[in-house]
Amino acid sequence: MENCPVCAGPIERGGRKGGPLPTYCTPRCKQRARSEREASNGTTEARRLRERERKARTPTQRPVRSCPYCGDPMASARRRQCGKPECVRRAKADRMRDYMKTLRNAAGEVGCRYQQYQREGSKRRRETLGHWRQLYPESAARIDARRRMRVQSATVEAFAPRDVYERDGWVCRLCLLPIDPTVAWSDSMSPSIDHRVPLAKGGEHSMANAQAAHLGCNSRKRDRLDETGPPAAAEMVA
Predict the structure, then answer these.
(1) pLDDT, tens digit, 9 for 90 and up, residues 12-31
(2) What are the contacts of 217-221 at 24+ separation with CB within 8 A?
(3) Which domain holds residue 204?
(4) What domain count does the chain have?
């Protein structure tokens, strides 16, 4: 039986029978022998010197990038926008616009397949379940009465819905997708008028407070405030 050169303890054979005899009794003795060997040949001192030189050097900092939408500096180099709600919304609009361009190019047609699929799904759902106004006439009447009261108590400006659609370029200001003027009412992709500040929150019924939206997007928004507002029309059609 041989002894460990570090602790002078007995070395026991491990593993399969007939294998080579270990040089050290435990991994701890093996690490200790390695440390002594590196200290004697100067490896440890050279490593410490390199570490001191690395800490002494001035760390190179990445250049601060500016937000492409508002121009404010961004803390993280991996972000595409600074994180403000309006910048996040414009970034999502750009990403959706690029996606729709890619989709149209892949389809080889001007029409949007996404709108077609959504329209067909809404049509099948209406044919299967029926419109909610037909299913719940009492709730529909109560909602209409409440809306009439809100309109009567608010500042009302006379304007045609088509004026709002043409001003916004027939683009939904909530999802930033085109609006098809040929789609009839009750379809989720049909045109509708959305109030930026809802009537339930004290908004007025005027051109300044109105924006074009899909009926489905308008219904999903409900009476939530749209504080950031839509981006400019020139940015969406660019």
Answers:
(1) 776 556 667 788 888 888 89
(2) 217/172, 217/174, 217/175, 218/174, 218/192, 218/193, 218/194, 219/188, 220/174, 221/174, 221/194
(3) 85-237
(4) 1
CA 74 to CA 55: how far, in whole Å?
27
With 0-12 / 13-18 / 19 or more C-beta atoms within 10 angstroms meaning exposed / middle / buried, residue 106 is exposed
172 part of a folded domain:
yes
Give the Cβ contact number of residue 131 at 10 Å: 11
Q: Which residue has the tokens 């999802």?
A: 175
| Tens-place pLDDT, residues 145-184 | 777 777 666 677 778 888 999 999 999 988 888 888 888 8
207, 213, 219, 221: CA torsion to nearest 10: -80
Position 126 in a domain: yes
Note whether residue 220 is domain-resident: yes
The verdict on residue 197 lying in a domain is yes
Which of 113-117, 119-123, 181-185, 233-237 has the least mean pLDDT? 233-237
Q: What is the pLDDT of residue 226?
A: 57
Closest CA to 31 of 1, 2, 3, 7: 7
